[in-house]
Each structure stands twice: as structure tokens, then as C-alpha cells.
Protein 1
Amino acid sequence: MGIVAWVVLGLISGLLARIVVPGSQAQGCLATTAVGILGAIIGGAIAAAADVGEIGTFYDGGTWAISILGAILLLLVLRALGGRARR
């Protein structure tokens, strides 16, 4: 995948992860994209290590599922490390 595909995948994955993970995430567009891209990398590494899939082509459903799950995992870890959010 090219850099533009990674950015689009990261943005959409990050947005979907923010919708799924409850609570308020005070992040902008760039932070959401970064969470999505890092989530895709983390999800791809976990899937490859478990031999259940890999990040492949942009239009593959498995690629999207792995990247969204990785972004959700990353958001949960960031929330756990960040402590309580201000209200």
C-alpha cells in the first residue's frame, strides 16, 4: 500500500475506533489518523505473530478489520495509561 492508502486507512480506522471506544477522546484529525495508522501496524503485527492474517491490499476486508481492531486496542491502552479524563 502507498502512503496515501495508509493515511486514508488510518483516518477511517481511527474514526471508527473512536466511535466504538466509549468516552470522550479529545483528539484532532491528525491524532486520530496517527492512532489509526499505529493501530493498523500493531494489529498487523499481532495478526502476523498469531498467524491469523496480515495487512495486505487496501480493498481487503481483513486489512480493515485488523487495522480497526488494532486502533481500538491502542485507544484502550492510551486511555489506561492516561488515567482519568478531565470533564
Note: Residues 36-81 form one domain.
Protein 2
Amino acid sequence: MWTATHFPSSMRSLNPTTRLKAIEIANQLLTQGELDKQHLIAFSIEEARRWARCERVDQTQWVTGARQYI
């Protein structure tokens, strides 16, 4: 599990709000265990950026969308 002070280095460039959302998404996907960490991180960053642009997706779409990376 990642936190606001312990997160993947690829999330370092995100602004703090977007980074927190990426961490939230990544932790949820991590508990489901469907993706390897590399794809999980990339997907969570992509979704957090989408969320930040006000194209919010609900949690079920994260899971469905994540399956394309498997």
C-alpha cells in the first residue's frame, strides 16, 4: 500500500491532489490483485489525470478499464 509520503517515483511529477488520487486508485487496484505493479501504477496515473481533468470515472470503470492492461 502506498501513502502520501511513500509512493512510486513515477508519481513524483503529479501535483499533490492528483498524486493522492493516483495513490487511492493504485491502492484499490492493488487489493484486487489483477495487475502487476508496473501496469497498475501506469493505469492509476492515467486515471488520476483523467479525474483531474474532471472526466471522473466511477470505481467500476477503473476495474473494467484495468483489465485491458493484463
Note: Residues 16 and 34 are 26 Å apart (CA to CA).
Protein 3
Amino acid sequence: MTRSDTKSERKSVQLNITVSPLIYERLKELVELGYFSSVSDAVRYAIHKMIAELEIQGKLPKKGETSFFEEYMRKRGWIKVDEGEID
């Protein structure tokens, strides 16, 4: 994940989470397959996708006119621009 997209993304907050061994192994597999550069990147992707999806569905209010998360996902091709749906 690049740190130059927005001011809010330049600073990071560290989270410590606990997942099952199965989830961790699957995340490592995604890294080994080249989908992500690290397990942290895979978790960040999942969080961005969840927030963008909830915003698009209207279940989570957007912050501002354009959602940072929706824009972030669109730039990376993770949201279908024409349909407004998560891939």
C-alpha cells in the first residue's frame, strides 16, 4: 500500500489482532501466490473492501462527498466503476 494517496493514509495506527491458525495460513497462502506482498497488506485490503462495500450499500455513512475507501478501491480496480459493486 502506498503512503501517498491521502493525508489520512500517511499516518498509520498499529492494530494487534488474533485470528485462527486456518485464517493465518490462508493469508500466508495469498502472499505466497503473489496476491499480496505481506499478510498485513492482505488484512488492509480486507478492511478497505469491507468499509467500501458497507458505504456503497448505504449501511455505513460516507465521510464527505467522495468516500476515501471507495476511491481507494476504484483506483486499484477492486470496485467495478460502472456498476458500483465490489469485485
Note: The radius of gyration is 14 Å.
Protein 4
Amino acid sequence: MILHLLRSSPFTTLDIGQSLALMDQDDGLLLMQDAVYAIQGQGQSWFEQLQQRQGIYILKEDMQARGLSHCPGFIEQVDYSKFVTLTLTFDQVVTW
């Protein structure tokens, strides 16, 4: 089980669809830094892929720092403490 940390905005150079294709079903995905903008991706094909996955997390503090307040229900908001717990729960951590 791998926890994937996405840091770049999916509206720039990051191909979030490609990242999702490389993930196994039991892997987790944490949106952090500019990747939190992914919650604004309704209508994008990769957004539908996100909705179909389990284990999608978003760092609350990064959302707040970017003025984002609404988070879709399929994404679990986590704080730094829960972030640390997630890194210990998964076997590996990969940063994109």
C-alpha cells in the first residue's frame, strides 16, 4: 500500500489522470500544497476518476491557505496530525 502525495496543481503540469492510473485500489492519495486546487476540477475527466476512488485525502491547512472552503464529500479533510498518521499507516510514501 502506497500513500501518494500530490503537490502540484492539476491545472498546470501535473497529469493527475496519469497519476491515478498508476495507483492500485488500496493506495491512498493526499492532495496537498497546490494540488488542493483539484477540488475545483468538476467537469474534468480526472475529477470523475477521483470520485470513484477510496482513500482520497486533502490537507485542510493547505485548503485554508489558498482560500478554499468547500470540499467534496468523497474527499476526507485531514490536519497535519492525521497526515503523519497516514504516512505511518501506508507501507510507502511517494511524492508527485
Note: The CA atoms of residues 14 and 45 lie 14 Å apart.
